[in-house]
Specification:
Radius of gyration: 17 Å
Strand order of the largest sheet: 4-2-5-6
Shape: globular
CATH architecture of the largest domain: 3-Layer(aba) Sandwich
Oligomer: single chain
Order of helices and strands: EEHEEHEHEHHHHH
Length: about 200
């Protein structure tokens, strides 16, 4: 069992059940789109974000990104981290048919994948000593533009290729991609990685 500092918010009870078998922390549910009308839940998420940090972990389908977008606009940006599960096609065991987009949700991910996406998001694992390393140089919007990942006629196709290469969800915009890249790479290693697939 992994112990992390941040609280985690997921879409539903099956996601919460799966995740609670991997991590020991506060896990809250949005009740799907219920978070859109539940101001008390939003206030609680905001408080948790301020006090201990919050990780948003939604499915990689359109609905998950809509919920994530709502939370982004309602919560303090500097206290929220975003974890993204990869696009894996299939169906969860409890369901008769796959979801609308045919992708597995958080509940369908293995413990190893869930640990990896939390590490990528920058979760604070309490068993591990804090690193005393020098802060890394951040990847900027200008870097994405220079690599043709935003603001160019073929940037959507290039970004899609990068997302597949990095095993990230296909629905990520350039703005959503930037903080994820900064959680995964420092600027120098990202530029080296970009050269290898371009």
């Amino acid at each position: 069992m992994l112990h992390i500092q941040e609280a985690i918010v997921v879409e539903g009870r099956y996601d919460k059940n799966t995740l609670s078998q991997v991590v020991d922390t506060v896990i809250l549910e949005t009740a799907g789109f219920g978070v859109f009308k539940n101001q008390e839940l939003v206030a609680l998420l905001r408080r948790l974000a301020e006090e201990r940090g919050l990780i948003v972990l939604t499915d990689s389908d359109g609905a998950g990104f809509l919920i994530r977008s709502r939370l982004k606009s309602a919560l303090p940006k500097d206290r929220v981290k975003h974890a993204y599960i990869p696009d894996v096609y299939g169906k969860e065991r409890r369901k008769r048919t796959p979801g609308k987009e045919g992708k597995l949700g958080v509940e369908g991910m293995s413990p190893a994948v869930l640990e990896e996406v939390l590490r990528r998001a920058g979760a604070t694992f309490l068993e591990e000593p804090a690193s005393g390393s020098v802060p890394k140089e951040a990847i900027t919007k200008a870097d994405l533009y220079l690599l043709g990942l935003s603001g160019t006629p073929d940037s959507a196709q290039r970004r899609s290729a990068l997302l597949r290469h990095l095993d990230l969800p296909e629905h990520m915009s350039a703005n959503a991609l930037l903080p994820v890249l900064n959680a995964l790479y420092d600027r120098e290693s990202f530029l080296e990685e970009a050269e290898s697939w371009m």
